[in-house]
From TrEMBL:
Lineage of the species this protein comes from: Archaea, Methanobacteriati, Methanobacteriota, Stenosarchaea group, Halobacteria
Keyword Oxidoreductase (UniProt): yes
Superkingdom field: Archaea
Identification of the protein by name: Short chain dehydrogenase
Keywords (A to Z) from UniProt: Oxidoreductase
Source species: Haladaptatus pallidirubidus
Length: 110
């Protein structure tokens, strides 16, 4: 039985970019229904336009309990189930790392 036949619903957090976005596209190609959770849905919007019956974006900050509850309630109202969770959301702080030189060793200490 294919995923399209059994209607599996996958929830992906952090679905707007990177790994989450590409997991969503791969699952859509295999017939899954995808609930995309993220604080920004700019990239997911094109998926939703291409697959209006199988993708739904939910604006959700997974660090806010109320956002998560609302998203889950709306997913259950729409599709009646959640079969798989891809917990991909993350916060990245890209900054230069501290440079610490290694102590030099003399040839006699080797």
């Amino acid at each position: 039985m294919s995923s399209a036949e059994n209607g599996q619903v996958v929830v992906i957090t952090g679905a707007n970019e990177g790994i989450g976005y590409h997991v969503a596209t791969a699952l859509l190609d295999r017939g899954y229904r995808v609930a995309s959770l993220d604080v920004d849905g700019t990239n997911v919007q094109s998926l939703q336009e291409t697959h209006p019956n199988r993708v739904q974006f939910y604006r959700c900050d997974v660090t806010v309990d109320g956002d998560v509850r609302t998203a889950v309630d709306e997913i259950l109202d729409r599709w009646g189930r959640i079969d798989i969770l891809v917990n991909n959301a993350a916060i990245f702080n890209f900054a230069p790392s501290k440079t610490t030189p290694l102590p030099t060793r003399s040839a006699s200490s080797r």
